[in-house]
From TrEMBL:
GO cellular component term, pick one: cytosol
Catalytic activity reported: acetate + ATP = acetyl phosphate + ADP
This protein's UniProt keywords: ATP-binding, Cytoplasm, Kinase, Magnesium, Metal-binding, Nucleotide-binding, Transferase
HAMAP family reported for this sequence: Acetate_kinase (MF_00020)
Main location group: cytoplasm
Subunit relationships: Homodimer.
Protein's name according to its UniProt entry: Acetate kinase
Needed co-factor(s): Mg(2+); Mn(2+)
Free-text remark on how the cofactor is bound: Mg(2+). Can also accept Mn(2+).
Gene name, Swiss-Prot/TrEMBL: ackA
Record: residues binding substrate: 83
Keyword presence, Hydrolase: no
Organism: Hahella chejuensis (strain KCTC 2396)
GO-annotated biological processes: acetate metabolic process; acetyl-CoA biosynthetic process
């Protein structure tokens, strides 16, 4: 599995039949003098290697060299699955990569100019070096291609959609799909009969309404800025505010982009951190803005869940996932406190333990079911990769 970002590359070797990956690692600060490369083989210590000025292709070389030293070569791999951010309306499912698919991913790059081109760097580097290795693209957006038009169309001149594809696409699809599948298994019900609201709360945050096993609404939009409050992204805003900032306060597009993506959300309100652990600690100590940032985060999350209740009832479960969703019991408790009118009653002890091992339930027996389900996007990418390669053979 490869996940290429602008200055990072995450990688893992996964056997979809096994829980733990054989290898997991990340190269960071690519293109800079202090780029480095960290990896961990199963049952071994972390290894760190500097790779000054390395680009994606060089990191991939270094990765295959390290694999070779561990007795794993390209011929031992069934295939390579890539995370690709934007599949536009072209990709409703994961796709086996060929020249045509690469061209289509390039076309979708107009919707994600910062992401798709770097995702393609990894794909092209592997294709050049190992042309016989099958590759699969797994898109962040494809799970949400089932949204009905009334959920994905912005109330803007329709021409913007027709001519430029301006609509809501949604992201984090692999995570929402993974936890929905896992929750269905835990409930012993076919996914197609399940209605869920899943909330992925990491640095980026999104909620998805899942009806009959498919996504029917999601909080991120044309870009990952829309929706919930995130670590440093603002989420929903008055669009008039953008006009105000540009016309009255003379913000340039670059300044706006930086502010809305990197200086807002939890960081913007608290003025101290985008990290929920840190904010919880500070709010315990009486830091007013940390507490306010948390309060806004939880209230906005609860409003989103309540809105999606309309689209999904009768609901099988609300699923919490992502770094915050899986680990931050006080955040789940605060968001759920708002949801009492929907029949949500937390089991505080189960919440503190982040859910029972077998059922992952953190609500009382007479409550709407609230679950904590750890996500595993890498495993989903590996499963899709294997399934598509098997189908072709
Ligand atoms: P990413 O979206 O980058 O993959 P993660 O899913 O790892 O991020 O989530 C990162 C967030 O999870 C951070 O805000 C971090 O503080 C929060 N987090 C992780 N562990 C805990 C914890 N035990 N309590 C509260 N927040 C936590």
């Amino acid at each position: 599995m490869l996940n290429s970002g602008s200055s990072s590359l995450k990688f893992a070797i996964i056997d979809p039949e096994q829980d733990a990956p054989l290898l997991i690692g990340i190269a960071e600060r690519l293109g800079s003098a202090n780029a480095d490369f960290r990896m961990r083989w199963r049952n071994e210590e972390d290894k760190r290697q500097p790779c000054p000025d390395a680009d994606h292709a060089r990191v991939i070389d270094q990765l295959f060299q390290a694999m070779h030293e561990h007795g794993v070569d390209a011929t031992d791999l069934t295939g390579v699955g890539h995370r690709v951010v934007h599949g536009g309306e072209t990709f409703r499912d994961s796709a086996t990569i060929d020249e045509q698919v690469i061209a289509k991913i390039e076309q979708c790059a107009k919707l994600a100019p910062l992401h798709n081109p770097v995702n393609l760097l990894g794909i092209k580097a592997i294709a050049r070096k190992y042309p016989d290795l099958s590759q699969v693209a797994v898109f962040d957006t494809s799970f949400h291609q089932t949204l009905p038009d009334y959920a994905y169309t912005y109330a803007l001149p329709y021409e913007l959609y027709r001519a430029h594809g301006v609509r809501r696409y949604g992201f984090h699809g692999s995570s929402h799909r993974f936890v929905a599948g896992r929750a269905a298994d835990l409930l012993g019900k076919p996914l197609k009969d399940c209605n869920f609201i899943s909330v992925h709360l990491g640095n980026g945050c999104s909620a998805t309404a899942i009806k009959g096993g498919v996504s029917v609404d999601t909080s991120m939009g044309l870009t990952p800025l829309e929706g919930l409050v995130m670590g440093s992204r603002c989420g929903d805003l008055d669009p008039g505010l953008i006009l105000h900032l540009t016309q009255t306060l003379n913000y340039t597009p670059d300044q706006l982009s930086h502010m809305l993506n990197k200086e807002s959300g939890l960081l913007g309100v608290s003025e101290v951190s985008n990290d929920m652990r840190e904010l919880l600690r500070l709010s315990e100590e009486g830091h007013h803005q940390a507490a306010l940032a948390i309060e806004i985060f939880c209230y906005r999350l609860a409003k989103m869940i309540a809105g999606y209740y309309l689209a999904t009832a009768p609901l099988d479960a609300v699923i919490f996932t992502g770094g915050i969703g899986e680990n931050a019991a006080p955040i789940r408790a605060r968001a759920c406190a708002w949801l009492k009118p929907l029949g949500v009653y937390m089991d505080e002890e189960a919440n503190r333990r982040h859910g029972e091992e077998n059922q992952r339930r953190i609500s009382k027996d007479d409550s709407l079911n609230i679950m904590v389900v750890p996500t595993n996007e890498e495993l989903l990418i590996a499963r899709d990769t294997l399934a598509l390669i098997r189908r072709r053979k």
